[in-house]
Design goal:
Layout lengths: L2 E2 L6 E2 L8 E12 L8 H8 L6 E12 L12 H16 L2 E2 L14 H17 L6 E10 L2 E6 L1
Parallel strand pairs: 3-5
Antiparallel strand pairs: 1-2, 3-4, 4-6, 6-7
The structure holds nickel (II) ion (NI).
The site of nickel (II) ion (NI) has 4 residues, from strand 4.
Length: 154
């Protein structure tokens, strides 16, 4: 049976058996094109279809972290801080940009949802560790459209 810890305002005795995942969701809009410059038009179209032409998406990015609950705040991470880190490391770099041309950390990358999720993971992992010992990045999910998403997790 769960009990509220009288001094600390949290549920006592369950943390050791369970993991807690906290997720922040942010959105951004960006343009991209899926093509390899060394391939001809026919091959690009055969592999990437309509995505071989410039187009855009309203992306949804979900970032999840795990850690222990701070007994004073009841939080694993302050969502204001998590939000600020995601905006600083990722959203501020990609929102209303062309992902193939405008984003230095994506230079030379075919900006599929898979590659974007991995690149965002790389940027977020170091950023989230700063000043938050015990708070670890566990999942990055990038929703590109209502029909597809890519997810990186550990
Ligand atoms: Ni696309």
């Amino acid at each position: 049976m769960l009990k509220i810890h009288p001094e600390e305002g949290r549920l006592a005795g369950v943390e050791s058996r369970l993991s807690i995942l906290v997720t922040r969701r942010v959105t951004f809009a960006a343009a991209h094109v899926l093509r390899r410059p060394e391939w001809d038009e026919e091959r690009n179209h055969a592999i990437f279809g309509a995505c071989a032409r410039d187009h855009g998406h309203n992306y949804v990015l979900e970032v999840s972290v795990s850690g222990t609950i701070d007994p004073d705040t009841g939080m694993v991470v302050n969502l204001k801080d998590l939000d600020a880190a995601v905006r600083d490391a990722v959203v501020g770099q990609v929102d209303h940009r062309h992902l193939n041309h405008d984003v230095p950390f994506l230079a030379g990358v075919v900006p599929t949802a898979e590659n974007l999720a991995l690149a965002f993971w790389e940027r977020l992992e170091g950023r989230l560790a700063e000043g938050r010992p015990g708070c670890r990045l566990r999942r990055v999910r990038l929703v590109e459209s209502e029909n597809n998403a890519a997810e990186v997790w550990r």
